[in-house]
Amino acid sequence: MLMPFQNDGQIDYPALTRLTELYLKAGASGLFANCLSSEMFELSAQERLQSIRHVVDVVGGAVPVVATGTFAGSLTEQADFVKRVYETGTEAVIVITGLLAEQSESDAVFNERVFRLLSWTPGIPLGFYECPEPYKRLLSAEQLGQFVQTGRVIYHKDTCLDINQVKAKLAAAEGHPFGLYDAYMGHAVASLRAGAAGLSCIQGNFFPELIVWLCDNYDQPHLQTEVEEVQQFFIRNMDVMHHVYPIAAKYSLKQRGIDISTFTRRQVGNFSSAVRQGVEALSGDYLTLSRSLELA
């Protein structure tokens, strides 16, 4: 999810309501609040909890909500915040892989901390997010399999960009109540066909209806031409969507008539006239594609 702000930098809760309703109307089967797209590292602890609680309240149980619960601090402090996030009503609390161990520390160190975190947060379903910040720490299929086998890990947002690794992770978690959600649209269809539970990508903050359509129709034999067209639309426009993000996504939503400011607390670069024109062209291409797919 994106985080809408007022032009003075405060969280815009009425806009957060509208945004949440937009995702739900688009058909999203779940929401990831308090994530990197939500500018979670630029929020205070209280803002994180309040915004998560707001999303949970707006959703009203219609779909599951997950949210990040680990930030800087000792493992004890992270465990305590996981509990506070879970108390907001989330389905699971997400662990940032790059915050449980330093980049120089071994997988053995990371694994030991995961199991300690599990023991210190009894009964709370957890998930992993291979977040690019503070650094991207990827889980191996073997690691993920070990964690899923505890029965406590039910979610994984994958950012490895390697379809073979995605398949290996899915195989390692087979037979357990668990879902892998791929962030990389470059192989989105292949990931879904391999058994991914869905997609968790920044493109969903531009065109959530199109992500829902792809998840619903990737395996429909009579729609394979259209499926390939949607896949190529995302591949072709990947640079436009990633550049000066999340400002570009917020501007794209404004182009669609959503009342949201483009203000961001993150330093993401200059939203130049060239970038603006690229997003405007993207919006036009989406409109043409959505009409061909007969999206509402």
From TrEMBL:
Keywords: Lyase
Presence of the UniProt keyword RNA-binding in the record: no
InterPro entries per the UniProt record, alphabetical: Aldolase_TIM, DapA-like
Similarity comment: Belongs to the DapA family.
Protein name: Dihydrodipicolinate synthase family protein
Organism from which the protein derives: Hymenobacter cellulosivorans
